[in-house]
Amino acid sequence: MGIENISIVPEPHKQVYFPGQEVKGYVLVVCSSATRCRAVDINFSGNARVSWAEGGGEHTVRYEASEPYFNFRTNLFVPDSTGRLPAGNHVWPFKFELPLNIPSSFEGEIGYIRYCIKTTARVFLGFNKEVEVYISVNCPFDLNSSSSAQAPLEIRTSGTSCCLKGIVNILLMGERSGAAVGEPYKQVIYTSTSKSTTRTTCVKTFEKGHVARGDSLYFNDEFFIVPSVVAGLQHCKLMSLKYYLEVGLH
């Protein structure tokens, strides 16, 4: 009896949205009978949050912070003098515009950036009915705006080992320092109101065997595929992210 179902349907459905685009669709509420309802509202919000703990037991210290980007809210249904939402299917369209200077959606080990559409049917003298949908936002970074991204990647290093005589040389080269979607370690720096911490995730690893004395070992034309949605966090103050290459000789 009452409200049987409530759903949010983005239309047209998009896998990824970009800053400045419209997010639109409709809310569907199915009532099996007339229901006393104070309102049906919809809320569209974007925010970032980080939280982690250090220490243990009674010495545990928790660090956290949050950052809001926007919070839009509007009423879809306001009851008449009867105070009831009639039986049947009710459809209300919605439309929001994403702000320009917002970061990409992001899910990290101890932090996230999320964009959520939530609708609530506020039932009189009963439990509210609510549902929420998350959308993915991609804020691209213009590589043309960074001179360092166009520069060739070249790193040379030399060292010795306590077990070997002589020098070991490593050379890492790439066409450029910047990469676009479709072209390895990922490092994220999280910042609370009082402290920062870093988490590193290995995206992909290449490994080869032994190198004989006086010989060379090559990784030729190896490539990494950048994910379809790479978090652009240039507008986030709580997190910063970078991808980097690491070569290890054991």
Describe this structure in words.
One of its GO terms (cellular component) is cytoplasm. This protein has 250 residues and is mostly beta strands. The chain has two domains: 3-135, Immunoglobulin-like (Sandwich), CATH 2.60.40.640; 143-244. Helices cover 2% and strands 49% of the residues. It has one helix spanning 147-150; strands at 3-10, 22-31, 35-54, 61-77, 84-85, 88-97, 106-107, 111-123, 129-135, 153-159, 168-174, 185-191, 196-202, 239-244. A hairpin with a 5-residue loop joins strand 8 and strand 9 (129-135). The model has no long low-confidence stretch (mean pLDDT 84).
Entry summary:
This protein has one helix at 147-150; strands at 3-10, 22-31, 35-54, 61-77, 84-85, 88-97, 106-107, 111-123, 129-135, 153-159, 168-174, 185-191, 196-202, 239-244. By secondary structure, the protein is mainly β.
Major sheet details: 6 strands, antiparallel
* Intertermini distance: 68 Å
What's the CATH C level of the largest domain? Mainly Beta
Tally of contiguous helical segments: 1
How is the topology of this model organized?
Elements lengths: L2 E8 L11 E10 L3 E20 L6 E17 L6 E2 L2 E10 L8 E2 L3 E13 L5 E7 L11 H4 L2 E7 L8 E7 L10 E7 L4 E7 L36 E6 L6
Antiparallel strand pairs: 1-2, 2-6, 3-4, 3-5, 3-8, 7-8, 8-9, 10-11, 12-13, 12-14
